[in-house]
Structure formats: C-alpha cells, structure tokens
Design a protein that fits this description.
Blueprint lengths: L6 H15 L4 E7 L8 H9 L5 E4 L10 H12 L4 H14 L4 E4 L2 H7 L1 H11 L3 E3 L9 H9 L3 E3 L1 E2 L5 H10 L4 E4 L16 H8 L7 E4 L5 H8 L4 E4 L1 H8 L4 H11 L4
Parallel strand pairs: 1-2, 1-9, 2-3, 3-4, 4-5, 6-7, 7-8, 8-9
Helix pairs in contact: 4-6, 5-6, 10-12
GO molecular function: tryptophan synthase activity
Family: Belongs to the TrpA family.
Protein name: Tryptophan synthase alpha chain
C-alpha cells in the first residue's frame, strides 16, 4: 500500500493503517443517505460512526443495478422523502462537522452527470467527502471522473468480482487511489447465508499482485461471524444491508455495529 497525493486518499489510508496496528481489518458500515428519512439519517449515521473506521454513504438512485432488494428499497424510500444527490452531499457535510472519520460516497455515474461532473466534485470536496466508490464506471472508459476527483482531493474506488478476469483485476487495482473494493460474490448486495469467503481468497491473492492500496471486501457480510471470516484475508470489511435491515426492523443498530466491529479482529 502506498500513499497518494490526494487529501482523501491519505485520510483513507491512515484509517486502514490504524486498524491494522490494532490487529484488525478496518470496519466500514454503509448507509443510504436519507434513510430511513432525511431527519432520522444523521442519528443513525452518528451511531455507525461511533464504531466505524470509515463510513460509506450511498447516494439514492432510481436504477441501482448493483444493489439488492434491501438497498433498492432504502433508495426508493430516501428518494420519496426528497433526498437528492445535492441533499446527500449536504447531509455528508453535516456529518463532517461532527466527525473526523473518513467518509466515502457510493454513487453510480448518472447522478454525477445529472449534477455536472465538475460541480459534483466541487460539492463533494466542500462537504468533506474523502472518496468515491464508482460501481458502474470502468476505469478505462471515462478518465474525466477520476481526473476531476483527484483535482478536488478525492480518492477513487473501483470494484472487482470473482468473475473479473486477471486483466480486469490488474486494470482496476492499478486505477484505485483510495482502496480496492472486492465483491465477495457474483450478483447484487445483500446479506446471505453461509460463508462470506467463497472465492475471495483467490481473488485477493491476484489483486494483491497489482494493488497499491488497501483491499476491502463487501457483499454478503452480515454479522460478527461473517465479518471475522473476511477480516482474516482482507484489509477492510464493508457491511451494508444488515444495517438497513436493522433500521427497518427497529433493532439495536449500535449493538450490531459494535458486535461486527469486534468481529473484524484477526485473532
């Protein structure tokens, strides 16, 4: 892992490094912006940030091809409540006033172009966003986004999956400046039964040949046990649908976050 020149990348790398010195993988919960409502989102995010090494905030989008039913429904609810792309960045800016934890925003490309790439990056920088997770942007097809992100101090994060070819893994790994996001299974997001590892060890072994940044694993991580499995092979553990479900069902989000964070240990 090597540092880059952007402010966001440096903060992201430092968060992973701190977790490593504590003998664990970095814990990165996910929450859809404006869920369960714009008014309630800050309190839920504060709860997650109390345990998080990094926080991933999703911009609600009407056609989230990489998201499973849980996050799709959360996006629909947030959009119905009026949470737009600009409102998401305002909500992140409010969080930044209270927290120094790195925040990365997950967004599809269309919301960026709807606002305008340069304006989007300006707003993200002003809000204190550290990086962008770009699930539907192949790094070899639109370098404008990555260049603008770097110009505004933001790291970029791309995804690989078990179906990625060695050539694609190399391309994506070398393009990431924040961390590399490895999808544990083929398909969409969501909590699953059984092991969270599957083909992950082999995929990460290949990715580490090229990655100069930490590698985080998401999709299918739902509890302390699955987080612990992933933490043995990855630098970071991403958990999303489990928290969306907990909020929906009125469960204790703070207890779940603390339990999963403990599961990120490597002992």
């Amino acid at each position: 892992m090597t540092a880059t020149t952007t402010r966001g990348a440096a903060r992201i790398h430092a968060a992973f490094a701190r977790a490593q010195t504590e003998g664990r993988a970095a814990f990165m919960p996910f929450l859809t912006a404006g869920y369960p409502s714009a008014a309630e989102f800050p309190a839920v995010a504060d709860t997650l940030l109390a345990q998080a090494d990094l926080l991933e905030v999703g911009i609600p989008y009407s056609d989230p091809l990489g998201d499973g039913p849980t996050i799709q429904r959360a996006s629909e609810q947030a959009l119905a409540g009026g949470t737009s792309t600009r409102r998401t960045l305002q909500l992140v800016g409010d969080l930044r006033q209270r927290h120094d934890t790195p925040i990365v925003v997950m967004t599809y490309v269309n919301p960026i172009y709807a606002v305008g790439p340069r304006e989007f990056m300006r707003l993200a920088q002003a809000a204190g966003v550290d990086g962008l997770i770009l699930p539907d942007l192949p790094p070899d097809q639109d370098i404008e986004i990555a260049d603008l992100a770097a110009e505004h101090g933001l790291a970029v994060i791309f995804l690989i999956a078990p179906t990625s070819t060695p050539e694609r893994v190399k391309l994506v790994a070398e393009a990431c400046t924040g961390f590399l996001y490895a999808v544990s299974v083929t398909g969409v997001t969501g909590a699953r039964e059984g092991s969270a590892l599957g083909e992950v060890p082999a995929m990460l072994a290949l990715a580490r040949l090229y990655a100069r940044v930490p590698i985080a694993v998401g999709f299918g991580v739902k509890d302390r046990q699955t987080a612990h499995q992933v933490a043995q092979v990855a630098d970071g553990v991403v958990v999303g649908s489990a928290f969306i479900n907990a909020v929906r069902d009125g469960e204790d989000v703070a207890a779940l976050a603390a339990d999963i964070r403990q599961g990120c240990s490597r002992d």
